[in-house]
Specification:
Elements (H helix, E strand, L loop, with lengths): L4 E11 L10 H18 L7 E5 L3 E6 L5 H19 L9 E13 L2 E3 L1 H11 L1 H9 L5 E6 H8 L12 E7 L2 E8 L21 H4 L45 H7 L7 H6 L2 E7 L11 E8 L5
């Protein structure tokens, strides 16, 4: 009844690489798609009204009535589909390759089709990255099957006609609904090929692991060296006097040794140095501060810039 959910076995079929086909090629692809899937259902004894089918452009959504044994799908229908594809692809330049997603759960019917989380999961399994990667890696194979964990546990593990649980391999895949377990099989092979690395990651990389987006912030500016106090400007040096550092005359008493290192004594004239150790030196001072002079001072001329 419309609007009421009922349990059903869901089969979603997608054509691999359909987006690469031209508008003139797609109608023929769709014709072959309906032919191989429909013939397989017919040979497995699954027909309307026990089979509902909905067109998906490059695929078909099928929902089976609750009284259809699911083992008939995972066994006979898959085998018939595989053989139909092999026969159809014999002389095709672009072979038809299909991905099948299988799940079972509650399905709601309305005038527009079928819906439900179970339907979504079957579609995601057929279209997920791992399913596509396995079919790409299975060179020459026309079909890959992706079964949900529930389908595998209830209908594949017990085995049956054309059902070999040893041919399935497990992969955990990340879908839009979250991380889930699926089982993959390539008909005609004892096991499916391994997908390329990182194919299980359907979603984008975690931004927290990848680091912040955008350029890195600029480095903080390097700390500047402390400047001399503005209240104690450096004294101008006379032409015959040694240079005096800007911070050579701090007011604090403990800064005197630094002033001694920053202001070495002026050189002594050669003729006076030969005769005596006396030092004749002109000292110009601005502001206050200690004057430190090495050696013997014979004459000191003070000037504060005003002639005193």
């Amino acid at each position: 009844m419309e609007g009421e959910a009922a349990y059903g076995f869901i089969v979603n079929v997608d054509a691999q690489g359909s987006g690469l086909l031209t508008d003139t090629e797609k109608p023929e692809m769709r014709r072959r798609l309906y032919d191989v899937t429909g013939t397989a259902f017919e040979r497995a004894g699954i027909r309307p009204p026990r089979l509902y089918q909905e067109d998906r452009g490059d695929g078909i959504l099928g929902v089976l009535a609750p009284d259809v044994p699911p083992v008939r799908v995972v066994g006979e229908w898959i085998e018939q589909l595989h053989q139909n594809l092999r026969e159809t692809n014999q002389h095709l330049r672009k072979p038809l390759r299909l991905r099948v997603g299988l799940h079972i759960g509650r399905v709601t019917a309305d005038a527009h089709g079928r819906s439900g989380r179970a339907v979504d999961l079957a579609c995601r399994l057929a279209d997920c990255t791992v399913t596509k990667a396995i079919l790409r890696a299975a060179d020459g194979a026309p079909l890959v099957v992706a079964a949900s964990d529930r389908v595998h546990e209830d209908f594949i593990l017990p085995g049956g006609r054309w059902v070999d649980p040893g041919h399935y391999r497990r992969h955990d895949v990340d879908l839009k609904e979250g991380r889930t377990t699926a089982w993959f099989m390539v008909p005609g092979r004892s096991e499916p090929p391994e997908p390329e690395p990182h194919a299980e990651r359907e979603q984008a990389p975690d931004t927290a692991a990848a680091g912040p987006a955008g350029p890195l912030p600029p480095h903080p500016p390097r700390p500047q060296q402390p400047q001399a106090e503005e209240t104690t400007p450096a004294a101008p040096v006379a032409a015959d006097a040694a240079p005096v550092a800007a911070d050579a005359a701090p007011a604090a008493e403990e800064a005197a040794p630094a002033a001694e290192e920053a202001a070495p004594a002026a050189p002594v004239a050669a003729d006076e140095a030969a005769a005596t150790d006396r030092v004749v030196q002109n000292i110009h001072q601005h502001g206050t501060g200690r004057i430190v002079v090495g050696g013997t001072i014979d004459t000191i001329n003070f000037s504060d810039g005003g002639g005193r």
